[in-house]
Amino acid sequence: MGIDAEVLIVGGGPAGLTAALTLARLTHTVKIFDNNDARNKATPAMTMLIAHDGETPEHFRNEAIKNLTKRHKNVTIENTTIAKVKKIEEGEDKGYFEVEDNEGKKWVGKKLVLSTGCTDIFPDIPGYEDFWGNGIYHCYFYKGYMPEKAPSSGILAVDIMEDVMKSMHAARYATQISKKVTIYTNDNKKLADQFASSFGNAKMFTVDDRKIARFFKPEASPDKLPTTVGIEFANGDKVEESFIGHYPLSKAKGPFHEQLGLPVLPSGDIATNFPWLQTDIKGVFACGDNSQPRKIIPEAQNTGSLVGAAISNQIIAENFGQMGLV
């Protein structure tokens, strides 16, 4: 059958695009598969990207693709949804990898990159998803700079954040952009007591152990931030916060790690081997949010570049019949 490209990349976000760019710089042929279902599609603006700070994710992605494909004719993009991936076990393409989209079209490559991102698993609290990325944030460096501090903010101490050290870590960051911080333990009174004893003499921290019934959008007024989040408790009481900090559970997006039999960490991330981010199958690499604990764009780009360089090393060494670094 022969290969369609040296490297097949499933997922065209910052990690996949950066891996493609890195490979393209050493003339490798690359095919990217993407269905435009980005994790950050609800985010109004991206941050922490030099020269792109404040741009929408869609604009950034479109400009990145335009630049990549215009300057590097060895990179092509298929706008499709990949449904299956596998390692070819027999025939002339043995040892290579095949991807198949949801219409049955197939492509073959020497190496496979999974840069599919992750699926967030939100707490079972009505209204949470409506504010995700626009009122509820997992990264304060994303929320970041404000001309003046917000009146107040909250930390939702559930799931991963049901931990004093992790939630206080987030709460301390929040004090840079809000005047006071309330930690909501959602009916966990024992945890609330642990937080209260950890505050020391700091007066800007408080804890609230009432059970949360829902998050809601308060009525707008001139003295409120655009992203003000309302919290209604099970007893009917209501409060408002300028924003909420919470890091949800997540899992690697797509069925591909299961189809390949790749191990997954307790965090839900695909397991990769240090330092080149190759999985337990030689020739299969993972980068970005599906395999990294720090799910932010600079980290996705960093891991994409690393994977691109690793694959280049592996392909070139194999072309000479030699053992490479990877």
TrEMBL record:
UniProt keywords, alphabetically: Flavoprotein, Oxidoreductase
Pfam families linked: Pyr_redox_2
Superkingdom field: Eukaryota
Stretches assigned to the FAD/NAD(P)-binding domain: 6-135
Coiled coil: none
Protein name (Swiss-Prot/TrEMBL): FAD/NAD(P)-binding domain-containing protein
UniProt entry tagged with the keyword Ubl conjugation: no
Gene3D superfamilies: FAD/NAD(P)-binding domain
UniProt-listed GO biological process terms: cellular response to toxic substance
GO MF term list: oxidoreductase activity
Species of origin: Lentithecium fluviatile CBS 122367
Family: Belongs to the class-II pyridine nucleotide-disulfide oxidoreductase family.
